[in-house]
Amino acid sequence: MKSVSVVIVALIAQVQAGLRFGCSSLTIQRLDPVVEPGKNPSAHLHHIVGGNAFNATMTGDVGERGTCTTCEMAEDFSNYWTAVLYFKHPTNGSYHRVPVTNNAALASGTKGGMTIYYTQHDFSTDDLKHQYITAFPPGFRMTVGSPTTDTLAQAKGHIGLRYNCLQSLLNRGAEMVDFPTKPCPAGIFTVHHFPACWDGKNLDSPDHQSHMFNTIKYDGFTNAPACPSSHPVRMPQLTYETVWDTTKFNSLWPSGAPNPFVWSFEGSSGYGTHADYMFGWKGDSLQRAMNKSECFYDGCGSIKKQAMATANQCTVKDMVGEQTDGWVTKLPGMIS
Ligand SMILES: *[C@@H]1O[C@H](CO)[C@@H](O)[C@H](O)[C@H]1NC(C)=O
Ligand SMILES: *[C@@H]1O[C@H](CO)[C@@H](O)[C@H](O)[C@H]1NC(C)=O
Ligand SMILES: *[C@@H]1O[C@H](CO)[C@@H](O)[C@H](O)[C@H]1NC(C)=O
Questions:
Q1: Which of 113, 197, 299, 329 gets the most CB atoms within 10 Å of its CB?
Q2: pTM
Q3: 290 Cα nearest atom in ligand 3
Q4: Cβ atoms of residues 197 and 228 within 8 Å
Q5: Domain range holding 20?
Q6: Ligand 1, residues at Cβ distance < 6 Å
Q7: Domain contains 44
Q8: Signal peptide location in the record (predicted)?
Q9: Number of folded domains that form the chain
């Protein structure tokens, strides 16, 4: 009798990796090493989290140069930044910076800062759709959104750049394309989802965006269609969340008056919301995390974490030296 060998193919359902962690605020300065490298000061003010290699110019392997980070993930010396939210006094026109507060559900001790996600964006019901996730290479940088966006149609097209009017820190309410039109009981929540398909060649591009491609058609953390042949490499889907504590300004917002919050680049609407990324994970640490199915959210054994009390000791120098806090008569760097 012939023996029949039966090959049993074990279809092990893959749980996709996905990191979510907090980074405390590192600094608030008018610097932008992605869009305006070498320029001090840059055009508008930024809220920056992450590693201490942050500088007006950033070249080479940031992960090898950083010696501390405000992020819970101790090997992540990347920098993450957005514009800064200000309150414009409705009657006297003075501005006050809106403080950043830590998101609910982050490691205790996170100060201000952001929630950072690196997800695979296809943890769908169909595991066969899973694509290998390639970590960003040293020197990689990108932006999403643009301060010059000034129409509703354009802003709607910026999938994943949205606002929520927080009812509480856990009840975010609906996602919106523009600033809320009424005071929000627990602050304004901003989210920046980056595109996740890479051209496989360029660490940057002249507009800091065209080396990447977004296949997502809906807002939120939704499943990602396949990357196109022009941008075939699936990268981690990077997302920032920031909670702006607008509550102490609510009593200064007269009923029926238009939204008094403005971005530091002085857009009259919220359409110009944007964010910048400078990759800086040490060695192969991000790839290691993306390869591990148990690496989900902050329960990730193979990745080194640090207490937020340690993270909070990481600082950079004030390289610009201008007033950004208290009541100011104009936004830093702006004419009016
Ligand atoms: C920032 O750049 C300046 C000028 O190139 C340099 O002197 C300084 O050491 C840099 N700081 C860091 C933290 O890299
Ligand atoms: C505007 O109002 C705020 C709060 O009432 C006050 O602290 C600030 O000094 C005022 N600015 C000017 C220019 O009067
Ligand atoms: C990640 O997985 C790929 C494919 O299995 C493998 O070639 C690579 O060496 C792994 N990298 C790390 C850092 O674990």
A1: 113
A2: 0.93
A3: 1
A4: yes
A5: 16-336
A6: 53, 55
A7: yes
A8: 1-17
A9: 1
